[in-house]
Design goal:
With about 375 residues, the chain is an alpha/beta fold. The chain is built from 15 helices and 16 strands. The strands form four sheets. It has an eight-stranded parallel beta barrel with strand order 4-5-6-10-11-12-13-14, surrounded by five helices.
């Protein structure tokens, strides 16, 4: 039974609404912090909740290797294991087909991985991916197993990946079956080829999924090329189902994708940036390690509800990084997650009030002014 998806307002192609799940509502547009190995890096679940996040993402590949999906199941499932009682979306492991291509082999039947931890062999088929995500980890939103083709790709290679993903989508749906409290999303593929994405979308709708993702972007093609694909890709998917852009992205990417009809996002960028001293703000990104912040006693965002954004000076944050204190990584990661949640909240409000286009123009102007 699909989770109800209610669109409450639209402004152009941008839309805001709610995806209702048994573990709580997901307000859209939604940004999902990435909890790769059962944790959003450097943060407690309470910190993540306090930023306003309605849902987080877990990673099938990493969790099946360590601590193993079977162990997570024995310990009560991923929600209990990591003490997160809101919805969780798990990726299928398909992205690792591309990112770990040097230690993986793809056949019609499955992907075979050599573990990056100890070299042990693991086989991930559509059926095994469904078992790990739905039965062992217990995620709320399960993703079909797909093949994410590296960019740039010739059309022949992109077609091969799209067609394999479609066949794996059929097997994923069959293995997932019908469930009362979990849903399955299909993944549109086709690289930067409109004809392939059109065919992929039709195949997915013929199978029938509870939601649809746009895969194969944010893999090196750049912002402009991504936007060119998003000019048509969301429109190829059902308007009454949530649309999820996988692995995206920078704040400007989110705003431009929402303008084109996307509802959900995930990305490691906020915490990865935070661990390296980069803070995202309404006026672009800053490197807190820069000397110009040594005597700056202003916070990153005095109007924020997040303590990391509001209560610590840039000078102090810079000091923490220069002194290699772990707290600096924690505070900047916390701030960045809070900023991404504030950004999606601002977009929801702008769409509801019919002023999204003005919001988009202002955001782009500030982004461009910051370089």
């Amino acid at each position: 039974m699909a989770f109800p998806f209610e669109i409450s307002a639209t402004d152009g192609k941008a839309r805001t609404g709610v995806l209702k799940t048994p573990r709580g509502d997901i307000r859209t547009p939604a940004f999902m912090p990435v909890g790769t190995a059962g944790t959003v890096k450097a943060l407690t679940v309470d910190q993540v909740k306090d930023t306003g996040a309605d849902i987080i993402l877990g990673n099938t590949y990493h969790l099946m290797l360590r601590p193993t999906a079977e162990r997570v199941k024995r310990l009560g499932g991923l929600h209990k294991f990591m003490r997160w009682d809101k919805p969780i979306l798990t990726d299928s492991g398909g992205f690792q087909v591309m990112s770990l291509s040097g230690i993986s082999k793809v056949t019609e039947e499955a992907v075979t991985f050599a573990s990056h931890i100890d070299g042990s062999k693991h086989v991930l088929s559509p059926e095994r991916s469904m078992e790990i995500q739905a039965d062992l980890l217990g995620s709320d939103i399960v993703m079909q197993l797909d093949e994410c083709v590296a960019w740039p790709a010739e059309e022949k290679r992109a077609r091969e990946g799209m067609e394999l993903s479609a066949r794996w989508g059929i097997r994923s749906k069959a293995a997932f079956g019908t469930r009362d409290s979990q849903v399955l999303f299909g993944i549109q593929q086709g690289s930067t080829f409109e004809n392939l994405r059109r065919e992929s979308s039709q195949r997915l709708q013929d199978i029938g999924f509870d939601g649809y993702a746009i895969g194969g972007l944010a893999v090196g093609e750049g912002h402009t090329a991504m936007c060119e694909v998003l000019d048509y890709a969301p429109d190829l998917l059902p308007a009454d189902k949530p649309r999820y852009l996988m692995g995206v992205g920078k704040p400007i990417d989110l705003v431009e994708a929402v303008a084109r009809g996307v509802d959900m996002f995930d990305c490691v960028l906020p915490t990865r940036s935070g661990r390296h001293g980069q803070a995202w703000t309404w006026d672009g990104a800053i490197n807190i390690k820069n000397a110009k912040f040594a005597d700056d006693d202003t916070p990153l965002d005095p109007g924020s509800d997040c303590p990391a954004s509001r209560d610590y000076s840039k000078a102090y944050l810079r000091h923490l990084f220069k002194a290699e204190e772990i707290l600096g990584q924690v505070l900047l990661s916390w701030h960045n997650i809070a900023f991404f949640q504030a950004l999606t909240a601002a977009m929801r409000e702008a769409i509801a009030e019919g002023r999204f286009e003005a919001f988009r123009r202002d955001f782009a102007a500030r982004h461009n002014a910051a370089g």
